[in-house]
Amino acid sequence: MSLRHVLERHQVSIYLGAVVAAVATAAAVPVLDGLAAMISPALAVMLFATFLQVPLMDLRKALRQVRFMAALLVANFIAIPALVSGLMPLLPPDPLLRLGVLIVLLAPCIDYVVTFAHLGRADARALLAATPLLLGAQMLLLPAYLGLFLGETGRTLIRIAPFIHAFVWLIAVPLLLASLTQAWARRSATGTRVGDYLGLLPVPATALVLFVVVGSVMPQLDAARAHAMQALPVYVAFAAIAPFVGFAVGRLFRLPSAGSRAVAFSAATRNSLVVLPLGLAVPGAGPLLPAVIVAQTLVELLSELVYMRLLPRLGEDP
Questions:
Q1: Which of 121, 162, 212, 288 could form a disulfide with 281 if both were Cys (CB 3.0 to 4.6 A apart)?
Q2: 304 φ, ψ to 5°?
């Protein structure tokens, strides 16, 4: 059995182990200087590894799956914002708390959602091929949605520069490097070998990001525990409702069961790892914003274990 197969087979345990290790490390060493500075570079490596799994031919083919892509966009950028709008009255009026909840719940996941979708008998390959589209769309739409939900208060808190920085370093550069690596692999035996080695990266890179993010934020989670607890009812309600919203959108677009389940996983799984640097860029963000964002990650990882068992039972092909 190859190392890549072993990593992919045990990746859920590896991710949960990374979170546990981060919590334990943060408890043993309360001040982890420099860990927060590793978040953006680790994210860039993880997204490069994610994009590397998407052959350019498959990406072009996936973009021609009009119904699936339309369902994915409608679920994540129309239906889910409507759900989030309905949940916001559960929160107190603190603008930073609301910003933290919004910034994570309005951004669909583009990394480990593929893993959980595969284990939940969803069309993980189509979801993987859609990752550049989902990431680009959320970077463009998130500032507009935050302004819409928060009004004038949101406009004073939101800075456009971090979104531009994230688009360049977390989308454009990793996607370009992944494209160049794939082109090299097609033309050279050395490139093929390098591509095979880089194929081992996705699981370790995602585990590293989880460790870095959780480890750097855990000390702040203690300081902002009350705010994180205020967000928990919204996160739990979202986790309970969102997959059914996504599945319903998939059915509305008459997708097969595997496609509808993929939309359900996408709707329910949020992009907390990638949006954390955006939250950290907000003036006066710490410790509240990082704690509120990472609290959603912890709720979500537990919820995914339920989704993997529940979503395969939903629906038959129309």
A1: 162
A2: -60, -35
